[in-house]
Design brief:
The chain is mostly beta strands and 204 residues long. It is built from 2 helices and 12 strands. It has one domain: Glucose Permease (Domain IIA) (Distorted Sandwich). Strand 7 (89-96) and strand 8 (99-106) form a beta hairpin.
Length: 204
């Protein structure tokens, strides 16, 4: 069983999870969470990972501003750059010594597959102002980043696609979280769609 050492130790921006050190923020600037792990379970259970219905939202969504840079949360290697049309759109996966991180709904890719990146490197951009201007009228553009992590060993058949709640692994000093008493429902993202699983579907 994993122990969350970071709950009882001083903040340390230079260490790694899951050994008890925080990952860096996945976006530059304001890091405002708008959809959390496990949210909207009724919506997400209609989608499947390898035949298993999802138990809820399997990551965290962060509201973004135009031309926001996406950052590598830890050193690693770019293992996949792909697109899930009708789902998380363009995405990037990075392999780390502890598992992998996933960044979805991105616009501009700034790295190449196989490239090694450092913690905090710019890997993509979300909220590209030109794309936003072209597509906002038909609601084809996302105004948030989907972020997920898998920690070794992971099981893609667990109802979460092998993903783990990223929140305990992120430095709370870098996050803006809603306060329940003052929370504005309109600030939350509408649960994003996912591709309906078929025999040929390849989940990131």
């Amino acid at each position: 069983m994993m122990t969350y050492k970071f709950l009882t130790r001083p903040l340390d921006d230079g260490a790694y999870e899951p050994e008890g050190i925080y990952l860096s923020a996945p976006i530059a600037g304001e890091c405002r969470a708008i959809q959390f792990w496990g949210d909207n379970s009724e919506h997400y259970r209609q989608f499947h990972y390898h035949g298993v219905p999802l138990k809820g939202h399997n990551g965290i969504d962060f509201r973004i501003s135009p031309n926001t840079y996406v950052l590598a949360v830890d050193p690693g290697r770019i293992t996949e750059i792909g697109e899930e049309r009708g789902g998380i759109g363009h995405y990037i996966k990075i392999e780390h010594r502890w598992g992998e991180s996933l960044y979805g709904h991105i616009d501009t890719i700034l790295i190449d597959a196989g490239q090694h990146v450092k913690r905090g490197d710019q890997i993509a951009m979300v909220g590209d102002s030109e794309i936003l201007a072209q597509s906002i009228a038909r609601e084809a553009h996302s105004t948030y980043l989907h972020f997920g992590i898998r920690i070794k060993p992971f099981n893609r058949f667990d109802g979460w696609g092998g993903f783990t709640d990223p929140l305990p692994y992120l430095n709370p000093a870098t996050l803006i979280l809603p306060i329940e008493s003052t929370f504005d429902d309109e600030a939350m993202v509408t649960p994003h769609s996912m591709v309906r699983e078929q025999a040929t579907t390849r989940r990131p």
